[in-house]
Write a structure and sequence with these properties.
By secondary structure, the chain is an alpha/beta fold. About 40% of the residues lie in helices and about 15% in strands. The protein is globular and about 70 Å long.
């Protein structure tokens, strides 16, 4: 049995009051809260295991190194990767994507080649590719988004061609909650010889991510989206591709030998991990994955789907509320607008009722422009949210709209 009240007790912040009201936290698409076991793991690491990792010969360095590399292996298992050397630790999804965008195109692209993204990407999966295009004389092309918030897969054959070198797409839209069908994108891209990067930032906490099943060449996600701390992220890449890519940053850790005449680089994954690694964040990320699996990931997924269906039905009954994105397969997110009322005003007034939602363009301005709206109000769910919180949100929204309209 999935005991959500017991789970909520693991998250101290959920007992917070906001303006004298119990916190209803519905901004999980921006960042998730952290369970006690993750917080305790961080504290234990600083109290008992804190020593800079790799190359140290003293006890604390060796035990910290051991824990860090075991965390890397834990991350690999969570996403179905067989080789932990394919797990590169970064600061988050943004850095993971930038790592690929700054290195791979320089190696495989020539002027006139193309990079393909979708019309629902986060800025982190648009801007790095634009920079690459400007630097190398490439062309950025875009898979359109249909009115219901799904991708126009019929456009793939026209967009993908021998000039396409990289395809970058999100697994789940952070604005619409649309769950994209990756299979035709990955398969068609590989048919023309293109590499595929999948942004799993919004998917990692809500669905099983299996790198073998997805069959992409790169997967990127952030720890803070999946109950781990800010500042730790992951890039998974196929070993044979990572081997040929040049380093992203220079410094300590990523070197083999340094002389003023020439520097040689470390083996995978360390050649992409310049500087002191976040060996505390890696342990906390591994602990978050352990926590999820103790609860049963399928149980979490079922609970969140029930929450989403319940919220969609409730919000659909409110006059004047228009949902943006009504794809047949959605995950964790409801985005909506109310004609004549600015999203910011709705979000600000909900906050006074203790209800935390996100408003604006959600770092996806081209998608917001596609729907010709100023932004949306976004409610996003996590394992610890409840049906009663959805009821509180709906009642609060009804009250706010009564005032604003």
């Amino acid at each position: 049995m999935f005991d959500v009240e017991k789970i909520r007790a693991d998250f101290p912040i959920l007992s917070t009051e906001v303006y004298g009201k119990p916190l209803v936290y519905l901004d999980n698409g921006a960042t998730t809260q952290k369970p006690l076991c993750v917080l305790d793991r961080i504290m234990h690491a600083y109290e008992c295991e804190n020593g800079n990792i790799h190359r140290g010969v003293h006890y604390l360095s060796e035990i910290a190194t051991d824990r860090h590399e075991k965390a890397r292996a834990r991350v690999a298992r969570f996403i179905g990767a067989e080789d932990s050397a394919e797990i590169v630790f970064t600061r988050g999804t943004t850095e993971s994507i930038n790592l690929v965008a700054r290195t791979l195109p320089d190696f495989i692209c020539k002027p006139g080649d193309e990079i393909l993204v979708t019309g629902m990407e986060h800025h982190s999966n648009i801007v790095p590719w634009q920079i690459a295009c400007e630097r190398l004389g490439l062309k950025l092309r875009v898979i359109p988004v249909l009115d219901n918030g799904e991708l126009d897969y019929s456009a793939l054959n026209n967009l993908l061609n021998k000039k396409t070198k990289i395809v970058a797409c999100t697994a789940v839209s952070n604005v619409l909650g649309t769950v994209n069908n990756l299979e035709p994108i990955v398969t068609t891209a590989h048919t023309v010889g293109a590499y595929v990067l999948v942004d799993c930032a919004q998917a990692i906490a809500h669905s099983h991510i299996d790198v073998k099943a997805i069959n992409a060449d790169f997967i990127a996600f952030s720890g803070h989206k999946v109950y781990a701390p800010n500042g730790i992220g992951v890039l998974w890449g196929r070993r044979e591709i990572l081997e040929i890519m040049p380093p992203f940053m220079g410094g300590g850790e990523m070197i083999d030998r340094v002389t003023f005449d020439k520097t040689t680089y470390n083996k995978l994954p360390y050649k992409f991990e310049a500087g002191t690694p976040d060996y505390i964040g890696s342990l906390a990320l591994a602990e978050a994955f352990d926590y999820i699996e103790r609860l049963g990931f399928d149980n979490i997924i079922a609970h969140e789907h029930h929450l989403l269906d319940y919220a969609i039905n409730k919000i659909s009954a409110i006059d004047g509320v228009r949902q943006i994105g009504t794809a047949s397969k959605r995950s964790g997110v409801i985005s909506f607008v109310v004609d004549g009322v600015h999203p910011y005003d709705i979000g600000t007034m909900l906050d006074k009722l203790g209800i935390a939602v996100r408003t604006g363009h959600h770092c996806a301005e081209p998608l917001i422009d596609r729907f010709s709206i100023p932004g949306t109000v976004r409610a996003s769910f996590a394992m610890y949210n409840t049906l009663s919180e959805v009821d509180t949100f709906i009642a609060g929204l009804d009250k706010v709209l009564t005032i604003l309209r």
